[in-house]
Amino acid sequence: MDIELICLLAMLGSFLLANLLLKLPVSISMVIGAVAGALVGGEGIPLRHLFEGTFTYVDTMLIISSAMLFMTVIQESGALEALNATIVTKLYRHPALMLMMLMLVIMFPGMITGSSTAAVLSAGALVAPVLLLIGIPRAKAGAIVAIGSIMGMAAPPINIPAMLIGGGVDMPYIGFDGPLLLLTLPCAVISVLLLGLRHCRNLDADKLAESLDLEVGKKYGFRLYIPIIVLFVLLVLSKAFLHFPQLGTCLIFLISAFIGLFTGRKFNFWDKALKAMDTTIPVLAKLMGVGMFIQIMTLVGARGWIVVSCLSLGITAVYIASLTIMPAFGAISSYGAASVLGVPFLLVLIQAGGHNDIMVASCLSFLCCLGDLMPPTALAGNYAAQIVQLKYKFVLKYCVVPFLICIAIALAVLLNSSFFSFLTV
Amino acid sequence: MLMYVYLAIVAFILLLVVVNMFRKRKNIFYQIDAALVMVTLILRLLLVK
Amino acid sequence: MKRKIPFHIMTASILCILVIVLVVVLTMIFSQAREAEPIYPGKGVTDVRMLSDWFPKLKGTNGDTEVYILDSGVKGSSMLVLGGTHPNEPAGVMTAIMLIEYCQPESGVLFVIPRANNSAFTCTDPQEAAPMKYYIDTDNGTRWFRFGSRATNPTDQWPDSEVYVHASSGQQLSGSETRNLNRAYPGREDGNFTEKIAFGLTELIKRENIQITVDLHEASPEYTTVNAIVAHEKALDLANLTLWMVEDSMKITVEASPTNLHGLSHRELGDSTNTLALLMETANASQGRLHGRMDSDLVVTGKDKFYTRAYGYGALNVDYPADGISLSERCARHITCVKEFCSMYEGEAGLISLGNLPSYDEIIDQGIGHFLKDPQ
Known about the structure:
The complex is a heterotrimer of chains A (425), B (49) and C (376). Chain A is mostly helical. Chain A has 22 helices and no strands. In chain C, the strands form three sheets. Chain C has an eight-stranded mixed beta sheet, with helices on both faces. In chain C, strands 5-6 form a two-stranded antiparallel sheet. Chains A and C meet through helix 3, helix 4, helix 9, helix 15 and helix 16 of A and helix 1, strand 8 and helix 7 of C.
């Protein structure tokens, strides 16, 4: 048995032991797994490596924190309630259209930022109360938010796993819009209709009006929406116009949040910001744990063992591994799946011939994104569950069918990549 | 210039983490989580890494 | 009356002290990366200048870097050799250092920059678990060399935009490429930190009227362009002539610089200056995704059982023997081609000869360390 495999088993074993048996948080269990791997690999406790691994996620940490601050402002200012009221009263007669619109709203921040977490925390949190209002059960609402945020993360214009995979083979991020829309739009529409349509076919207008807060919208009017509009405009401008100052998603969230302090109900920002960070700290710590885990996997050779083992099984197995191991790797990190597995898999599939490179890279990136549903990290899933105030396992149950549909669509596109190559123009 | 703005954001988030660490009662795991985050944020704030 | 400190305040305080201790220790560890390895200029070096001499805005920054000039004193053409564009590709750096310490040109002028992206030498890439140093045995003991990052240190340029847009072409790449020197050419006078370094290098080439520029790289063995010379269309003839001369001793291919891939030295330096722009790639296991344990040995010996297995599965683009592809062999490829570029070039300004450089076989047999200068 390879020593690298022994290290990997030690890492996974101590992680599972700490997380499932000792009931330690995922973050601390990941650190324990990383330290165990380093010890078995004869590296002692390599402080430098442990903390160097966390730096991959500095920018992600800032985006998550600023998105949480933005969401807090939107909730406290009353904009969220007003927006819910508007969507429901305008669209309740056309439930299918309403659900698709709501799905698009969930996806939007993910499309612009390339982060499912940003999508869940911003639009997901806006839409979840609406979904509950129109009668969708909590667990299914959580599943819709989780799937929607992942479709947003995978959808164009920004798909970070696709960029990571492309960067590994010097493929410019051009021509991905069509393939990514082909993958994400059908999956998003099917998922939301499958999970939600049954519950909102016959909506009662009077009953809805009772549970909606129409007052705050009337009191502050249009200005309530200014922070959301500013967010939307800044995100679009910085992506659409290359010469527009590149502020970064984090700063755009904070600017919009700052504006939100003056456009609605007054509240104590410091208290609310502390509360927002309170729920964010465990997620950030989880990222730190993931960073350490991957760095030690690389250091002791466990990463290489995983990739070579996948490659050893031949082209059919690479297809199977793309559809299974790559989303499963998301349990550690979906970005990690893209750079660790995505690049070698793409090279093998290109070498096998008969494929369109961009279509294959798009499919692989889409499969990586699905990893954000994988427990225990399940960035998108956990946050979605938190928003609907349930444990993730209840939400996960309803994610299974849409997840399998996504895998099936990805496989169909992957096998027919040459046929769809016209989309890459 | 943008770098200094982002360093200020790091400092603000670090402050929120530290205050939360002292505020949250009787949860050592939560405090360890906060400590992990703090190390990375401080190293970036000091432009060490 | 004695007031009892609440338990959670006590634990938080202890953890804060621990955090401070960790930060101090980690600061000491990470700061070591800022120390550069000593280079001992050989007899051929006639002047050592800084890149800021050609682009003063770099002065005093981490982007400023040493330019070694080896002027033969005999009229001839000039050549620039860039090592360390990506400091995680050590064959480029070591080849440049060997030229500085060993080479004595007989005609023309040789410019050598061993740390093209100096900032990238001061850190390593997160999650790549790279060693901070690697060690090479020489005839006078072991010497250490700095292993760095593919990209500029984020402490010099941060934050990255989500998408990197190459300024002159509008090409979009992953945001992490914002700090990649070999995506920043021809650079911008008022651009970001990395673009300024690229601009400085372009200025040097223009002002010194460099006839040939060779950017020395390495690639992971699973990458498509490896063991190759990538040449701008103006330099294709030179690359093909060189290929003809060296293909008996090594397997190597010539690839034309793609016209739709922007920011790379072989494309942009060829387009925006008069230089013949060439780029070389060798197979480096330590920068791939398939390697086993990551340490100095892997960097230097290139021995890796996983790469050998992957070769057996047909997953690589190069032969990967069980003995690995050593740093000496990778440097031998670079040195041999650089020497042949010079001997094959017939420019208007005259010839350029790098003198008595060791042959491909000599470097492999005796090791790269044998050709480094004795510090004494």
